[in-house]
Every structure is written in structure tokens, then in C-alpha cells.
Amino acid sequence: MELFETVPNFSVGRDDAVWETIAAPFYSCAQTRLLDIQADDDYGRTVLTAVGTFQGLLAALPASAAAAVAAIDLRQHHGVHIRMGAVDVVPIIPLGGAGMERAVMLSRQVGHDIHAVTGVPVFLYGASATTADHVRLPDIRRGGLQGVAARISQGELRPDFGHGIHPTAGATAVGARGFLIAYNIDLDTADPQAAMAIARTIRTSDGGLAGLQAKGVYLPSRGHVQVTCNLMDYHVTGLAEVYRTVERLAESMGHAVTGSEIVGLVPFAALAQAYEQLIGGRGHVDEKTVVAALRRRMGIHDLDAGRVLEDRLAASGLAGEVD
């Protein structure tokens, strides 16, 4: 079966009523399954993970976006995560049986339909981008909502669908891409400068690790900072390398890593790679051993079988493989 994963990010924290409305289309469609919901008040962000067929996601994603636009007013939004829209980004990832070409086709239709039902301007990014300056999401979202609005009004930034910024819902990016792992590392300090300095050292754009986006943020409810990272291709730069590098840099500054977290779901191959590189295990190792070892060594407090993409996919009832 041709399946796709989608990981839409919404600019809202822990709000059960909003979650229910934006998740409902994935429950009501027979060809989609909602695998995971994670929300964070400090970031002001909710991340859904769902899988579905081409037609299933083509129906569910615009309906979910419409519910979010109706429920979320960015003028009332609070959170440290940079954002440009109520529906901030809608990635589409091909799973086994689907190719990137089909994911691009799906994403472009979804982008068109989201604009049609919401009036929100939509940018196509990643493999779906129609211009070179839209390939990288940070290039589109630079400056957050205010920066995007200003560049659109000045003619510097042109959405693929729509024109001016939506007054309450901003703008949305939709695109096909490969697997991305969102991974945050906690430091034992409330000094945001420490996290920002580490982020500047490790991210690709400043000459750091390949395929890595990173920034430093302070989390008010937790009283400490995080180095928040996007691993664009774990085959190039994996979890273990990011963790060890941040750990080493923190120690050189007189700080310590106190834990970490994965946002959304993660392919088991990425965990097995980290186990081999960080723990030293080789050959076939069962999932329970890998998860327990990484939870101890990397302090990934939310890591269990529930975070493994293949486990959730198998339990969903939709047949598919993770490449």
C-alpha cells in the first residue's frame, strides 16, 4: 500500500478543545490514522503525527487546517518557537511503497486545498519548492510572523498559493521531505546565551555539523534552557553525534547536559544507529535493549516503544514500511 507520513505543526500549546478539532479529520477518515500528539506550552506548539493514503491525507489535511485556522488566533499566541502561521508547517514524507515524486504531488495539492478552504497563503518548501529560495523552511519563515508579513507586503516573498498574510492565521508552509528528527537537549542553566552559543557552533548554517538546524531557547516553566535541533538526515548526522557534541561543548562552558527529548516519532534505525555509536552495541539488538540504554545514557525521558514509528505504524492497521 502506498502510504505517507505527515507531521503538521500547529501554533498552540496544551489545549484539549483545539486538539480535538484539529485531530478529528484523521479519526473520521478510513484511510488515515493519527499516531501521536505532542504539545508544549513553553514552545506554544502542538505536533501531530499521522499516516494515510494519498486520498486519505488529501481529505484530512485541509480539513484539519481549516479547524486550526478557526480555533487559533496568532494575535493571542505565546511561545518561544518561531512561527509564521496557526498551521505553521505541513511536511509530507513518503513511506515504503511511495516515492518522493508522489509525495511532492500530494503536497502541492494539499497546499492548494489548504489555501482554498482557509484563505491562508501557502508556501511550497522542501522537495516541493517551486523556487530555490523556498527550499529551506528557515529561509521562508525568517523573522517569524512579522518578518514574513513584511516581506510579503514588500513583494520580497511570494506565496505559491494566495497573496497577503491572513490576519489571524498568518501563513503556512507545505512540502515533501525525508525523515526529520526533532531532538531537544536540556542544559543545567537558565542562561539562554549558553544554549545559543552551542546552537551556533553545531548548526550547518554556521559551519557546524552537516544537515543540522539548531537554536537555543529558554523554557520558563522548566527554568532551564534547551538546545533544540532538527536532524535533517540522521544517516548524515545522527542522534549520538549531536548529543556528544552538545555534551562536550556544554562541559567546556562549565555546564552539563541534564536530559533530552524526542519530539514526535523516530524510526528505529535512528535509535539503533545511536546505540551503536554511543553505547558500542553491534549486530542485531532488540528494541527493548536499545530504548532502555539510550534512555539512560542520553536521558531521553520520554523514550519508549511508543516513540518508535514502526511500532505505531504496525498498531495503526495500515500496512506500510519505513525506508
Quick recap:
The protein has 323 residues and is of the alpha+beta class.
Notes on the protein architecture:
The chain is α+β, with helices and mostly antiparallel strands. It folds into two domains: 173 residues, 2-Layer Sandwich (Formiminotransferase-cyclodeaminase, Chain B, domain 1); 136 residues, Formiminotransferase, C-terminal subdomain (Alpha-Beta Plaits). Helix content is 38%, strand content 22%. It has ten helices and eleven strands. The strands form two sheets. Strands 1, 2, 3, 4, 5, 6 and 7 form a seven-stranded mixed sheet that branches. α1 packs antiparallel against α2, α6 packs across α7 and α8 packs across α9. The radius of gyration is 19 Å and the shape is globular.
Individual helix count: 10
The helix/strand series, from N terminus to C terminus, equals EEHEEHEHEHHEEHEEHEHHH
Strand content: 15-25%
Structural class: alpha+beta
C-alpha end-to-end distance: 14 Å
Number of strands: 11
Largest sheet: 7 strands, mixed
**How many domains?**
2
Highest-level CATH class of the largest domain? Alpha Beta
Q: What general outline do the C-alpha atoms trace?
A: globular
Low-pLDDT stretches are none
The average pLDDT score comes to 94
Under CATH, the homologous superfamily of the largest domain reads Formiminotransferase, N-terminal subdomain
Percentage of helical residues? 25-40%
Computed over alpha carbons, the radius of gyration is 19 Å
CATH topology of the largest domain: Formiminotransferase-cyclodeaminase, Chain B, domain 1
CATH architecture of the largest domain: 2-Layer Sandwich
